[in-house]
Amino acid sequence: MLQPGLMMDRPLLISDIIEHAAAQYGDVDVVSRETHGPLFRYNYARCARRARQLANALAGLGLKPGSAVGSIAWNNHRHLEAYFAVSGSGMVMHTCNPRLAPPQLIYVINHAEDEVVLFDATFAPLVKGIAEHCPRVRHWVCLADAENTPAIEGVANVVAYEDLIAPQPDSFDWPVFDERTGAALCYTSGTTGHPKGVLYSHRAIVLNAMAGTVPHVIGLSPSETVLPVVPMFHINAWCIPYAAPMVGARLVLPGPRLDGAGLHGLLESEKVTVSAGVPTIWLGLMQYVEQNGLRFTTMRRTIVGGTAMPAALIARFAEGYDVEVRHGWGMTETTAVATFGALTPADREKPAAEQHAVVARQGKSLYGVDIKVVDEQGNTLPRDGVSQGELMVRGHWIVDRYYKAESSALRDGWFPTGDIATIEPGGRMQIRDRTKDVIKSGGEWISSIDLENAALGHPAVAMAAVVGIKHPKWDERPLLILVRKPGQALEKDQILAFLSERVAKWWVPDDVVFVDSLPVGGTGKVQKTPLREQYGNLFR
Ligand code: ADP
Question: Distance between CA 257 and CA 503 in Å, rounded?
Answer without folding.
Answer: 38
